[in-house]
Amino acid sequence: MLRPASVLAAVAALFSLPLSAHALESGPKGPLPLFDLQRLRLDPGALGSLVVGTGRTLAPGQLRVGLNYHYEQLPMHFQTRWEPGEGTGLVENKMTAHLTLGYGVLSWLEVGAELPFILMQGGKPTLEYAPPKTGGLATPWLSARAAVLRQSLGAPINVALEMTAGLPVGSRTAQAYEDYAWHPRLQLGYVGEGFQVGGEAGVFLRKRQDLRPVSYSEGDILGNELRFGATVTSRGGEVTRGEVSVLAGVPLQGGQVGAELLIAIRRHALSSLDLYVMGGPGVGAGLDTPTFRFVAGLSWATSKVD
Description:
- The chain is mainly β and about 300 residues long.
- It is built from 2 helices and 15 strands.
- About 10% of the residues have low confidence.
- It comes from Corallococcus terminator.
């Protein structure tokens, strides 16, 4: 027979365990700390890769406009280790439309812009926090890329410097706002016979946000981080080509590493019109790394981009 003292000790031990991140779904719900949940930046010029710069710039006067549909599975969830598959989180499914514009100003200078708009998102309440509201303008991004070395002028590789900045006008209720966001980076690339390789490294600077009171996990911190990207692109086909890209983020102010593998197929439907799809898994326990993302889009350019 269980003694009353043993029962009381067991109950006390049970309530002393750390709370599950999804244990409480009742009671008052407060807003989350403000930050932009979206990690992915689409390359406005898309010279070689849809997401990784390769050190090249659009030709002078060349304009590229892209319209993209973007789906993310579990882009905001709390876990202590990587566990692919379905689950629950403050944001479980998210759909975003992205408008991108790239323009070659000079032979060595390209400017770009990205305007994301959240179409829909939904998730489960976590402790005292409610999921972000559905829909709204996300952080717009402006970029400038300057080519330092160019193979077209006899250099062994392509090298460029790029600065991307986020404007603080995104929706606060849709979890799409940053007080400030800067992303300077160095881009390298090499165009060979039938292939292209590229890579970039930079620092993403933003306001530090501590979400440990939300998740009760020591790793759930967002802040400055090193960001890396690498890509391999096929250039053998005149109509259809593929690419494989890897993205990674290494936190500098606490937090957890996140990485993604993205595979894309691009088809030149017309000399000025491209159709493409891209998707792949997220790897790592970073709270803003989705378990899977998918992008489908089309782009129009004044002349063939790649």
